[in-house]
Amino acid sequence: MALEKSIKISEVKGIGASFGITIGKAFLVDKGKLKIPKTKIHSDKVPIEVAKFYKCIDNVIEEIQQTKSKIEKKGKELYKEELLIIDMQLLLLNDSMISKKTVELIRDKKINAEWALNISLDEIYKKFENMDDYYIAERQEDIKHVFREVMNCLMGKRFNTLEEIKKPVILIGHDFSPAETIKMNFKKVKGFITEVGSKTSHTAIIARSQKIPSIVGVPNITDIVNGGDDIILDGYTGSVYINPSYDTINKFKALEDQYHKFFAGLMRDKNRSAVTRDGYKVNIYGNIEMPQELDALFEYGGEGIGLFRTEYLYLSGNTLPTEEEHFKVYKSVAEKIYPRPLVIRTIDIGGDKFLPGYNESDQLNPAMGLRAVRFCLKELDIFKSQIKGLIRATFLFDNIKILIPMVSGINEIIKVKEIINLCHKELNIDNRDKLKRVDIGVMVEIPSSAILADIFCQYVDFFSIGTNDLIQYTLAIDRLNKDVSYLYEPAHPGVLRLIELTIKTAKKFNIPVAMCGEMAGEIMYIPILLAMGIESLSMNPASIPLVKEIICNLSLKESKKIYNRIKKLHTCIEIEKFLKTELNSKFPNLSFLF
Ligand code: PEP
Ligand code: MG
Description:
Layout: E1 10-13, E2 15-18, E3 21-29, H1 46-74, H2 80-94, H3 97-109, H4 113-129, H5 134-154, E4 169-173, H6 178-183, E5 189-194, H7 202-209, E6 214-216, H8 221-224, E7 230-234, E8 239-242, H9 246-267, E9 274-275, E10 281-288, H10 294-299, E11 305-309, H11 312-315, H12 323-337, E12 342-345, H13 372-378, H14 380-396, E13 400-404, H15 410-427, H16 433-436, E14 440-444, H17 447-451, H18 453-456, E15 462-465, H19 467-475, H20 493-508, E16 513-515, H21 526-532, E17 536-539, H22 544-552, H23 556-566, H24 572-586
Parallel strand pairs: 3-4, 4-5, 5-6, 10-11, 10-17, 11-12, 12-13, 13-14, 14-15, 15-16, 16-17
Antiparallel strand pairs: 1-8, 2-6, 3-7, 7-8, 9-10
Bound molecules: phosphoenolpyruvate and magnesium ion.
Phosphoenolpyruvate binds near residues 205, 307, 445, 516 and 517.
């Protein structure tokens, strides 16, 4: 480890998003705020700096050209807007005042290319500053975006280096999109730290599913940390230690060891059923984002897949997946886990996951915009190819169920069923009865669907409660916004009432009810969910052994007692305090988790 006296030592805090402790070197992925190196150069070096600058311009042009041809292949008409922006970017790079000015500055002032580019950009922005015009402001954004790429190249900090990390590192960045996260080489990423985000942002969910300790919402972490700094990341408490002392490192190594031993103990019982001491059984399923996670599901003792998010199919490639690709993926996952259940969710694109080529920024409030089933009902071709792939897989494997996300009213489910029927007809499959055997369920993640649970029961075969969104929409807090993450309260009495209403109604109408939001894997809430009568919990696979441990050591009777007390409390703070005291006394060896 580096010597303390010559470097910055500090401790900062964020939100622990994925459990675990990890120690490693910082790898800075700085997208927005690059620290520009400023050096004077000798006259001999001028041609080298100029050449370096033009080389980076050429590199960025080439990349943009590649993106352009990919988009053109998808359809020039469909992506008119994107192509216009691309042409504008190319124009800016090929022949702009900024390039000319930068080269002039390198030659006249004898400064490095990064510094020269920075000065030319500052001058341009100053000119823009006094112009109160929306169009001009947009152009400024275009310039910033495209020359940030050039600056990145000059500084050897291309974003795609994310995929090319050589040694295991702790990634530090302003934010990583789910698409970037999916493309990362997880063997090389020991942990994540981001400036924005929350426990239920998709980046955090993917980190959990990959068992990568992570912390989100650490203000200014990209300013505080330098690439190569020694970092301790404590995903349990959300603490980041920068260039810590030997003593601190040793203390955390010992803690890491202790946790490993504890979890190794749990793994010995991973295949037991989750049955309370008085005989109430809960099905324990896993959430997966990609087929490769099936191994983790088996490794941790999952009894099936309660949520297969299918967005990765759209985020990992450069083209839209074909019906055949859908079919092959669903068939292969269904076959591998047969006869255990597999709940496949149709795409939930548009909230914080976007299709490449679709304009992600033109919705002011994407979480409430054209997302999930709304997007699918508008982009019928995209939806139909997924549905057809799904139908074909269900003909081979009857363990598949179809789950529709973000349903807010009955009309949407009626339309989805019409499309399923249409796809069935278009596929020209004779045996129509087979279609009836495919269960179609809805995610209960918008308050209206919980309130209308009794009506939904008449249209669908099962419910899966998506607490990540149900909490977001019930409490009106953006699940990605760290400034309001303190309001993100699974045990908020308003949220609990909606969950209870959904479970009780499903039971009354005799349809299966599961929970697949992150709350399902949070051990603190297990007594509440048991008391409400939850039948199945689906979570990131790594949480399964611990959840089984808690359920097996509780009774339904005592859970009901706990919940009856909770119902008399008015705030989430009181509820969580009460739950912590109860669980601490029942599980004194797990106090580090509550
Ligand atoms: C949820 O909202 O709880 C959920 C499981 O779906 P996602 O996190 O993918 O929105
Ligand atoms: Mg959701």
